[in-house]
Amino acid sequence: MTPAQIEARLERILPRVAKPGRYTGGEYNQIVKNWQEIDYKVAFAFPDIYDIGMSNLGLMILYDIVNKHRNLLAERVYAPWTDMEALMREQGIPLFSLETKHPIREFDMLAISLPYEQLYTNALNLLDLAGMPVRSLERDASYPLVIAGGHACYNPEPMAPFIDVFVIGEGEEAILEMIGVMRAARHLDRETQLRYLAQLDGCYVPRFYDVAYHEDGTVAAITPNMPEAPAKVLKTIVPVLPPPVTDFIIPFVETVHNRAPIEIMRGCTRGCRFCHAGMVTRPVRERPVAEVLAAMDKILQSTGYEEIALLSLSSSDYTYVLELTEQIGQRFGHLGLNISLPSLRIETVSTHLMDNLGDGRRGGFTLAPEAATEKMRSTINKYVSHAELLETAREIFRRDWRTIKLYFMIGHPLEEIADVQAIADLARAVLAEGRKFHGNKASVNVGVSTFIPKPHTPFQWEPMDDMTRVQEKLALLKAAFRGAGLHLRWNEPQESLFEGFLSRGDRRMAEVVERAWRKGAKFDAWMEHFRQDAWQEALAKEGLDPHFYTHRRRRIDEVFPWEHIDVAVTKKFLTQDYLMSQQQKTRVDCRHHCFACGILPKLKELRRVTPEDAWECPPVPASRAARKRPLPFAERALAVDSIPLPLVGD
Known about the structure:
alpha/beta; Rossmann fold; Transcription Regulator spoIIAA; 6-stranded mixed β-sheet; 23 helices; 19 strands
């Protein structure tokens, strides 16, 4: 079907769907190139609705990078909502790009973002809507190359049969390398193309690996079956953060985050034992203050956003956070912008930083203690004393914030019922501080989620808490949070259980994913659409018990389904940290003391990290890193016209 035919049919069906602006394209700052003049075309897909996908910074970054090359083209596609999908199937409209309405089947590459596991069935649905077989082995070189990246890909096995290549790690440079290889190998069959791609940093080709199992169902070994495939796939890392996106596409409908994000720092040195992102995004890289300010200037010129989000995993650990917030106030304070600085750590929220943030406040001030007793905070390596927490709350309320949001997890290892009761006690103590300044207008909002032992973390050996006990803990909190000024929100434990068996699954889980999708499962992150019956039936058909993945303590020497994925943090380090957690021993911030997690030796294995690229740990401050960078990102990125093919063995 041609773009003109698709547009003609869209004119007839869009008046019949909710929020037709999700499907029209044509937004301000979108990039449209002449299709006939472009040599290689990439469709970037976020497998959820436009309202959510448009706020995904990773997709924005890659869209920007690819479109900066005159001979490359990147367009966007999101999952149609159920009403639109039904009409597309009824009218025979294939999945299409927003920019030019070309069928996705006509692109050279389909790059799917998988930031969380609940998107797995939506990804299969996108492939099916595009008129493509969902299984990689059934797609030859006449189909777009299907790649996937994102945090859910650090355990790629539950999606292994469906994806041609997973990008493990950071994609800014990897995407250009892959495009270069595919352009050079476009005349070859798909198997040979994949053998070339398997030799690139961070490229995992699942068909080139075999998985063996013990009789008890645990993984025995994961071994390459092609000479080009490495025994372990080392994540790819960009030495210096690329220039931030500034020409954001302005959506036609309200999105989950109506703001312009700027990543000020990538990685984290804190070592929270439950935190997947903190482990897999090492090492820390910081963006210079001048670059952040210049980006804000450009964003304000090219968009109508009134909120700028300064993003990182631990924003108050950014070396120059005080300087940055001061300069933002001096330079942009007269504009009345809202500057959001999420992920502030309690012990590093200085009164000076609060003052710098004070003029643009909206809503509440968010803190994430994660646990309410000092014992539990030592267990998870997020230690802060009660005195520090209450002092921080006091200073926040003193500066005229009237609401504090606190985030906790229940179900942590070694947790007892007294540790859960302490959540309510701590919330009341924080509320009492607020009432000293604001009376009954003070409030404390508490969010509670259920702990999931994620891959590549020190807690990957731990089981999830029993669901009956989790429900008892939630019942305790619901009863304890009655009264003015206290508000409790929680994630349903069944959602966490579902995420748990997908995030910890092996390759056999892929059969469950496909069965559930064929039974109608999709939009699994939306509770009103979650088909628990479809998942239970799929698990039963495959003879798999979800509790085998979620509620079983792992042996220290067990082979994980993600054993062949190397995030550059060693299993030895994770094991040591796990054993320390059982004794409630903590590690200090590794900016102050190196614990030999393995990141530096692994960096030397990456071909693009040269001695001149000057990695240090603790990380180089942003100002020094800016002086030492060998070349700007755009110049270091490989020239996609001239990438030689690597060797392929017999």
